[in-house]
Amino acid sequence: MRTRNAVARDYYGILGVSREASDDEIKRAYRKLARQFHPDVNPDPEAQEKFKDINAAYEVLSDDRKRQIVDLGGDPLAPGGGGAGGPGGPGGAGPFVGFQDIMDAFFGGAGGNARGPRPRTRPGADAILRLELDLHETAFGVEAPITVDTAVLCTTCSGAGTAAGTHLATCEACAGRGEVQSVQRTFLGQVVSARPCTVCQGYGTTIPHPCPTCAGDGRVRTRRSLTVKIPAGVEDGMRIRLAQQGEVGPGGGTAGDLYVEIHERPHDVYSRKGDDLHCRVTVPMTAAALGTRLTIKTLDSEETVDVKAGTQPASTLRLRARGVPHLRGTGRGDLYVHLDVRTPTKLDPDQEKMLRDFAKTRGEEVAELSKQGGFFSRMRDAFNGHA
To answer: 315 lies in a domain?
Structure first.
């Protein structure tokens, strides 16, 4: 009994692009998603699975031949090349090698050089660097020196990968096609299929004498020093893009981008919420009752604020435009000073007598806890709504 073909994966949907998307649009979509779901950035197990799907989608859609298979309704990464469940596929009989091999016969495998060798020069990957900054630096900006360990162009061979005075050689196994062909019998008859050449790894050329510096890769790893300009108002977790400062690609390909991820160190006094700053100041009970004046040291100045007489615990003072400058636009956030009113824990006899006398003058009797109708009784009445 024939089983129904498995549904091909929607590689366009995985990258969030249309079926008419250009190569550049596919690449931009891949880079954006890869940065979001890369395991080094997002350790969530679901994000790791998503990252695998993103890589698979880019592998397919960046290859013209594999993309053509997708457009015809197949899945080049499925078992058997997209024909799962067909005759001779998984669970079937016969030496059928799958939809991929049939496509090879029609699109270059039978006479073939439609696919051709893959290029040795390929774009480089993006890189991410963590940069820790103080609150003052993120608030007002800074030019920060950074050290980057990335792949750079090999200066010995200028990316060619060959030793001085030597050149690439045409692969004898595939005659420079980058693939080898084989003939297999299928239910359609004989099908000529093509596979990447294992001798040259699909490049069509070999390097008889590799560059002694880069071993034929066209790039070497090194440590570089750069200076990154941090704009005023950046927040924790933001990334700054340095174009083409990432990894140089194999064969001296165009470098990827470097993303500097900002991590703001905790401040001893202030906590930050967006562009607003918050701090806590303790004032004595007497100062809160009588009023006082406080000198607050902000990030870049000193401000004097008045605490009004009768200020209650958990009151907040607001200093406008004394927070962090806005990243986009002009102006600054605010500074909020949260007041903690401190009540003395120990009183000497004279101080206690003065407070008791003060309470009497206000009609605030300090009753004994065991006395009927005392403090707890009045509290109970207040909760129960009695006058």
So the answer is: yes
